[in-house]
Recover the amino acids of this structure.
């Protein structure tokens, strides 16, 4: 019984990724260009996410500063301190909805990029960070889920939205992780050439 349930998770994840690829390839490409323009002009990426998305954002920052699959010079990225223990972190009722915004106001500068993740699109903390980034004249690259929620509605024309059309947070996180790997790979390919070695 559990083996069938496990297999279904793999099938559902693969199906969503297969369906989302054509839909998301253009916004992911736009996100890649925004990140690349930022770091090649001396800017930095501030990555944040609500709840589990904060861990995914930290994963991205580690690859960006360290390496993805190839050796390269460090790229500037900072993972903003999340509150992954808050069960309401990805909702409008987050315990500390200003925690990312304070960090954006302290660290962000014009030309930087806020990479904001929210599986629901309705995280009060990610929404406040988006608004703080706009105050700092930063571009926002938002990885969202469902219909994009309040964060999606707060984005400007100069921002980039990568929205996974699914309501289940676990599936959205899986596609967000793959998206971040695509971003790292694409930036490495543009900086180092397309050869994988």
């Amino acid at each position: 019984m559990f083996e069938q349930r496990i297999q279904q998770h793999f099938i559902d994840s693969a199906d969503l990724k297969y369906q989302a690829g054509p839909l998301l390839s253009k916004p992911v490409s736009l996100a890649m260009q925004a990140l690349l323009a930022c770091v090649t002009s001396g800017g930095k990426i501030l990555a944040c996410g609500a709840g589990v998305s904060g861990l995914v954002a930290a994963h991205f920052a580690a690859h960006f500063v360290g390496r993805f699959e190839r050796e390269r010079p460090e790229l500037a990225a900072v993972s903003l301190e999340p509150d992954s223990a808050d069960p309401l972190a990805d909702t409008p009722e987050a315990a500390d909805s200003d925690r990312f915004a304070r960090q954006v106001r302290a660290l962000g500068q014009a030309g930087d990029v806020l990479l904001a993740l929210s599986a629901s699109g309705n995280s009060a903390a990610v929404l406040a960070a988006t608004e703080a980034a706009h105050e700092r004249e930063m571009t926002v690259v938002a990885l969202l889920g469902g219909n994009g929620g309040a964060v999606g509605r707060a984005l400007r024309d100069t921002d980039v939205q990568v929205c996974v059309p699914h309501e289940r947070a676990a599936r959205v996180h899986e596609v967000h992780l793959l998206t971040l790997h695509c971003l790292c790979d694409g930036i490495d390919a543009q900086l180092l050439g397309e050869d994988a070695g």
